Amino acid sequence: MSRTGRWIPVAWVISAMRDANQKPTGLVAVGRDLTERRQFETQLIRSEKLAALGVLAGGIAHEVRNPLAVVSSAAQLLLEGRLDSATRRVCEEKIHQNVQRASGVIENLLRFARQSDRGERLLLDLAAVARDAADRIANQFKLSRVELALEFPSCAVPIRGTSGLLQQPVMNLLLNAANSMPETGGRVTLRVSVHPPHAVLQVVDTGCGIPTADLPKVFDPFFTTMPVGKGTGLGLSICYSITKQHGGGIDIASEPDQETVVTVRLPLDTGPGSGEVSP
Fold first, then answer.
1. Which parts of the sequence belong to the Histidine kinase domain (predicted)?
2. Single pTM value for the model
3. What is the pLDDT of residues 168-178, one digit of tens each?
């Protein structure tokens, strides 16, 4: 502690002093003031946060500006007032679609940022959560001519979590897999299994794969390989965030033109009452 009462971080290296018979006769202690190092680390963390904030702000601006530009153009045409009924209808639809798109970007961003919205952690069956999520988007798979296969164990897979939150990453992963398919369709497998101490959920697709250079960036907010207007780049970021909130992890194995395997691992609940999961 300094004379002003400020704590000073110090790294100590202590060595023993020995006589000719190797008996300890004392200690030598060398202290190094870590104040400058700590200040440098703080500045580095601040710089990294500012850089991340800049990337996030740029992504938000890009994703919101594009639909706003469409809305502005359509509104200007409507204000001119010299449109036939068909063109007016097209402009109105464009405004509605792009307002919905901007609203979707903001909603996804709120989901990504809402770290404290955890809700009550109940005892759940991961297989049931995954099945409910798959049922919600089954029609979208049919329209895309993509086969969805479910592989679940016969017994419950108990975990602790919030059902509504956990369904979100499952749906995001399934939709990402479906969107990676060619126009001729393909196959997506949703698999739940138990590998103690983890409950494991996997989404395997026969799509186009992910370039090796893109794999380290897939969980970054607003990173997407989808065409403009087809995705916000927040889906996998939301998956990562929700999985981490539940004490789990997520990783992706993929190569171009090969199948992609996304694996989510969550802590398996083996405590009292684990056989009585919530529906």
1. 59-270
2. 0.60
3. 889 889 988 88
